[in-house]
Each structure stands twice: as structure tokens, then as C-alpha cells.
């Protein structure tokens, strides 16, 4: 038989989604794959029922996104940033941020180009760079503070990458990069003439006093930035697969072509219904922030009570727990044992780091109180895993 693609040998299947299958096998509380277990806002589900009631749309929308969805998105950006992207030329609607990121990388990168990726990183970025024929240059975000060394970042830029991928707020580290850090990145992107591709899916899941900075709004960054984000996390609709890239008209013209041939378009009925979410007032976002602040406190206090050392996320809904005192040589095996014997699912930290790192596991806490309390009760037994 002919050989399979060499590229597919360069990355594994998603460890995160593999952990979900392991959780299902053992009936474990799944705190591995990050998705909420509570419903989306009623305005959205009612709008979806209405789409069904009025008979559609059920066919393809415009490949780069339904007109009213792009208008609503542009209005929402104006409300939060003071700048309105042109819905006709500066937005392409995608199947989640996952497709937005793949589209963005394919739009700016040629085979053989280099792309800077911070490590630890959301595992899709490794596959995105490999699939586009690029070579990642990894720059460490050093735990436990998960900050980068500006000199190491400049060394990476000296290799003349085509782009840098920035996840802010970041998964798994929970960092909300400060304006100063972002300005350092912006300075280097300008100096070495690189694009910045941002993944901002957690832009509304931020814990005060931290606030989100849209990278594209930093001085001089509009034309260099491809802003990727989605509705998955903000409206608790990870299954709807709605995301987008916002960038300059020059970039979006090319991105639309990439997107068209990847997926043709995001689901038309769901775009129609999601407009109701994009038009929710500011109170919705404050309530979302309060809800996550509550979940973070519940879960982190619980971990403290059990005596598990962890970082304190500034944004997103993940926490890294240090398991070095348990004496396991392999964190994947630890997570399998945790799912089987303790009944809680986590993601092995090694799947996020480029260098070999075996000290961390990642939990997510986008769950109702009952589920988080159940997980915390089960975690009382975690010390039975001590070697
Ligand atoms: C950083 C990051 N980007 C993207 C995604 C996926 O987003 P979407 O559902 O919009 O494809 C996730 C999901 O966990 C994520 O953590």
C-alpha cells in the first residue's frame, strides 16, 4: 500500500480528546476537555427554535459568513473595543476558532517558514504549523508564573519567523498577558516584520483585576494581526462550531479563499441563531465573569483544602496542579490512574509543553457546583496514587 502523509506522523491525536474517551470508559468526572456543562443563554436557544420554526436558513450561507452575523459581530467589537471591523472586508466566519487558527496560519505561512509558539501551548497550534508545512520555534512560558524571557523571545525572532501565535488569555497557563508583555511582542513583530496570530477564545473569561487587551488594537498592530476567536466559550456553545478571523482587508481576502476550500462555511442556521448572542447587552458578560469567578473560587479552594499545589489562573478556566510529590515518571499514566481509581479526568501537562515536563496535570472548572463538588470529593482519594 502507498505511504501515508509524512505530516500526519509528526503529531499525535489530541491527548485532550483522548482523555475524554478515557473518562467515559471509567465513568470519571471529566475535568479534562474544557467545555461547560450548563446551557447557553436562553436568547440563543430561543433564536435557534425560531430558526427551525420559520424554516431556515438551512442552506449554505455566504462562504465568508452570513451578512447579519458579520454585522452583529462588528457591532459587538465596536462596543468592546471602540473600533468596528468592516463586516464586508475584514471578517471571515469560520467553524470555531479551531478552523480560524488553521485558516490564519495557512493564509500567512509558506512551507518551510518558521512560526513562534509559546510553550506550554494549546495542542492544536503544533498541528496547525505542521499541517501548513511550517516549523515551530518554541519559546518557554516558565512555570509557575508562565512568563516569557524577552531575550529568548528576541532570539526566536532573530530566526525570522513569518508569524507568532499568541493565546491570550492562555490555555493551559491561565495567563492574561500584561500590556507591557504585549507591547514587547508588538515591538519585536514590527522589528522583525512578522504577523501575529491571536487566539482570543477566552476574551470574556477573565478574573478581576485582569482585563483583556485586543492585540490588534496596540499601536501599529492592526495590519499585522489576525485575530481569531469564537462563540464557543463566551456563549457556552462549543458544539455550534462558530468562530471568526478579523484582520485587514488584504489578509481577509486571502483568508476567505483558504476558509472556502477548507469548509465552505460555518453552519447557516446556527449563525442566524447566534446573532441573538452577539447582541446581548453588557450585563450578560458581567454575569459570565461573575459565574466563572465563583467556579474558580470553589474549585481552587477545594484544591487548597485537599492540599494540592496549583497556579491561580488570571483568565480562561484551567488550573495546573503540581503532581511532582506523587512520584510518577509518566503523567499520562498518572491521569489514566486518576480517571480509573479516583474517578476524575485531567489532562497530562506534558501534552502542552515542548520540553519534557512531567510535573503538571490540567483540570478545567467550567462545571456546575454539583459536578465540581463531586470531583473535589473524589479527589480526596488522590493520595492513594502516591508511589
Ligand atoms: C485556546 C483554545 N483555542 C481554541 C479552542 C477551540 O475553540 P473552538 O471551539 O472555537 O474551535 C479551545 C478549546 O478548548 C481553546 O482552549
Brief overview:
The chain is α/β, with parallel strands linked by helices and about 375 residues long.
CATH class membership of the largest domain? Alpha Beta
Question: Main beta sheet: strand number and arrangement?
Answer: 7 strands, mixed
Number of helices: 12
**How far do the termini sit from each other?**
45 Å
Q: What is the second-level CATH architecture of the largest domain?
A: 3-Layer(aba) Sandwich
* Secondary structure: helix percent: 40-55%
The total domain count is 2
Oligomer: single chain
User: What is the count of β-strands?
Assistant: 12
Instruction: For the largest sheet, list the strands in their spatial order.
Output: 2-8-7-6-5-3-4
Query: What is the C-alpha radius of gyration, as a whole number of Å?
Result: 21 Å
Structural class: alpha/beta
The distinct bound ligands, ions and cofactors come out as: pyridoxal-5'-phosphate
Shape: globular
The low-pLDDT segments are none
CATH superfamily of the largest domain: Type I PLP-dependent aspartate aminotransferase-like (Major domain)
Order of helices and strands: HEHHEHEHEHEHEEEHHHEHEEEH
Question: What is the percentage of strand-forming residues?
Answer: 5-15%
CATH fold description of the largest domain:
Aspartate Aminotransferase, domain 2
What's the mean pLDDT score?
Answer: 97
